[in-house]
Each structure stands twice: as structure tokens, then as C-alpha cells.
Amino acid sequence: MNADMDQSTMTTEEHRAWSESLTDDEKTVAHVPAGCKEILLVIAYIKRALVTGKMKAGERLHLLEWLNDQVDTFLTPEMLTTIEPMCDTQIAIMREAHSLNDKDDPAGMASFKVLTSQGVFNKFLVLNPSLLAAILEHDHATAGPEKTKSAEDSPAGDTLATGGYGRGGLEADNGNGGTHYD
Questions:
Q1: Tens digits of per-residue pLDDT, 123-155?
Q2: Which domain range does residue 158 map to?
Q3: What does the H/E/C string look like for the chain?
């Protein structure tokens, strides 16, 4: 089965089989609430703006304060530090998703549903592995010692050990000095 499958259309048996087929990392990501996924994406987006945007000091300060205010029971300071800025491809995906919102949707639920869907969010994890690292940081911080593992302890097939999430395809520069896989 595939981590990108639409869980809402699965029967109970299909969901059980799907869940059992996931790697530990994929299971961890599947349990991240949609609102938390959105916050992770917005953080990467804002970090990109801070790195590349030409803005006044007050605007920069406002964004930095917003980032600081996001630390809560889900988002730890370590997670915030771990997340890297979005690459050009991620920015393009965000813009396309936001184009789905209309004036009757001030909360942006159309783009929210797309961006936080398992399939699209997984693409962000491939393009920006720091998002997965942040999620795993949270999982390890909230887990007992028996659940915590390092990259060296991960089995060869585990996505943490292979340096990317669900990768398989062409290797390319992600614009952040790293590599992504399509």
C-alpha cells in the first residue's frame, strides 16, 4: 500500500492493511493533525520569506515574533530550529493551492485541505526533509526512551536512515543546498 492513499474512502479492513504497510516514519506523519501540518508548512514558508524577501525591519520582526509564538505543546523550539526554508517548488505548490481559495472562503479551507492531505504533504516532506526531521523530533521528544532512535539505529529501509521521505525518482537540487526526490 501507499502512504499517499486517501484514508477517507477506505473500508475498515483496507485502512488496517494500509496502516500495517506503513514504515514507522510514515505512521508518525499519518498521525500529525492537519492543523499542525499547516503550521509546519507556514513556518517553512515564512523562513523562506525571511531569507529571500526584501522587507522592512518591522516586517521582519513581526515574522520572527510570529515564529516564536508558534512554540506550544506540539511545536518545540527544537522543531522550529530544525525546519528549513521552502524551496522554489514548494513555494509554487503553496501558490497553486492558495489559488483554490475564493472570496467565500476567507479561512482558506480549500487550500488547507489540499496542502494537509497525505499525498500533497508527503511531497513537501520529499522536497524539504527538515519537515520530517521536525516531526520526528516531536515524536522522539514525546516518546519514552524505548521509542527514541537515532539515524544510525534505523533499519536500512526506514525513511530516516535513507535521508528522505518516500523518495523514489529523480534527484535534483531543492534550492536549499540539499537534494530532493520527485
A1: 999 999 999 999 998 876 666 554 444 444 433
A2: 22-181
A3: CCCCCCHHHCCHHHHHHHHHHCCHHHHHHHCCCHHHHHHHHHHHHHHHHHHHCCCCHHHHHHHHHHHHHCCCCCCCHHHHHHCCCCCHHHHHHHHHHHCCCCCCCCCCHHHHHHHCCHHHHHHHHHHCHHHHHHHHHHHHHHCCCCCCCCHHHCCCCCHHHHCCCCCCCCEEECCCCCEEEC
CA distance 36 to 75: 8
**In this structure, is residue 93 part of a structural domain?**
yes
Look up the pTM and report it. Answer: 0.72
Task: Please work out, in degrees rounded to the nearest 5, the angle formed at the alpha carbon of residue 90 by the alpha carbons of 9 and 172.
Answer: 105
Residue 15 covered by a domain: no
In a domain, 2, yes or no: no
What's the grid cell of residue 8?
477517507
Asked if residues 74 and 57 have their Cβ atoms less than 8 Å apart, the reply is no
Q: How many domains does the chain have?
A: 1
What is the Cα–Cα distance from 30 to 37, expressed in whole angstroms?
10
Chain centroid offset of residue 46 CA: 14
